[in-house]
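Researcher: Quick test of sequence recovery. Tokens follow.
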């Protein structure tokens, strides 16, 4: 008969393995629900003092690396700069370059009380009117009042990755991109937005797109893709360099191209999928070079 200590140690190891298996199964089920049907092939993990992380597109920030804001020199860190005066913000000092219709739409968004999310701060779209490229996300995760002077697109870390993606892959600066969200008012953390909120904000978003007339729209994340394209398909089945038609009325706006990729917030949680996002952005860059709509 084996000693009691050895038996207890085996039981502990068995319990740890079972817990690990349960955790792995839960993660795989989560990935399946997100539409992830395959995983990128990476180099084998080397254990030891010189272990290397899996290969990852450095232009979007390596796993574990310090995030750096656009415009900051190497070695410096800080929150995203956000819209710079005279560059792409639609604040009071830039309103002279914003068409009257867009100013009216932004005022309508700021005054909107059509859904329960209206108690939160509203975040209208931000960017240069006439930009050929438009990015649509889900919502902005806002820091506590007073901790961020400049408006955010998605969130502190998410904005750093967003502008790394725009600048280092697409070679577009803030003056060449317009960024908006499906939801103009952020939901509470962990709260799923109600259908009413999505319907009301979708009307704002479509009106915004109709005024801006971008050559190409990038839908970042599942909420943006499903809302814009009126589909239940996951991002993994919508992405991959495919262009989908967004129909707004008749005529020239009846088939705007929409290309889908992962949201920076999701990539921060799943860094191995950055390579897939890189391929999506490269396909968008090629389409922009061809004129977007063609």
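Model:
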């Amino acid at each position: 008969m084996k000693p009691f200590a050895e038996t207890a140690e085996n039981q502990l190891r068995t319990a740890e393995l079972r817990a690990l298996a349960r955790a792995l199964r839960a993660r795989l089920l989560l990935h399946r629900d997100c539409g992830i049907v395959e995983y990128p092939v990476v180099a084998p993990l080397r254990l030891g003092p010189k272990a290397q992380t899996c290969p990852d597109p450095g232009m979007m920030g390596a796993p574990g690396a310090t995030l750096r804001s656009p415009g900051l020199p190497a070695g410096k860190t800080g929150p995203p700069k956000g819209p710079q005066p005279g560059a792409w913000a639609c604040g009071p000092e830039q309103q002279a370059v914003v068409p009257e219709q867009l100013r009216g739409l932004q005022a309508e968004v700021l005054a909107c009380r059509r859904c329960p999310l209206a108690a939160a701060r509203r975040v209208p779209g931000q960017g240069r009117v006439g930009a050929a490229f438009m990015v649509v996300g889900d919502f902005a995760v806002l820091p506590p009042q007073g901790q961020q002077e400049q408006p955010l697109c998605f969130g502190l870390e998410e904005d750093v990755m967003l502008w790394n993606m725009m600048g280092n892959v697409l070679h577009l600066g803030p003056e060449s991109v317009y960024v908006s969200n499906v939801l103009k008012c952020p939901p509470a953390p962990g709260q799923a937005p109600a259908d009413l909120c999505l319907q009301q904000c979708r009307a704002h978003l479509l009106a915004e797109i109709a005024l801006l007339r971008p050559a190409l729209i990038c839908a970042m994340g599942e909420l943006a893709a499903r809302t814009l394209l009126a589909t239940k398909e996951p991002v993994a089945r919508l992405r991959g360099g495919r262009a989908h038609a967004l129909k707004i009325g008749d005529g020239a706006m009846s088939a705007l191209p929409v290309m889908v990729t992962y949201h920076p917030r999701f990539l921060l949680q799943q860094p191995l999928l950055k390579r897939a996002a890189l391929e999506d952005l490269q396909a968008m860059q090629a389409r922009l070079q061809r004129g977007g709509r063609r």
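The radius of gyration is 22 Å.
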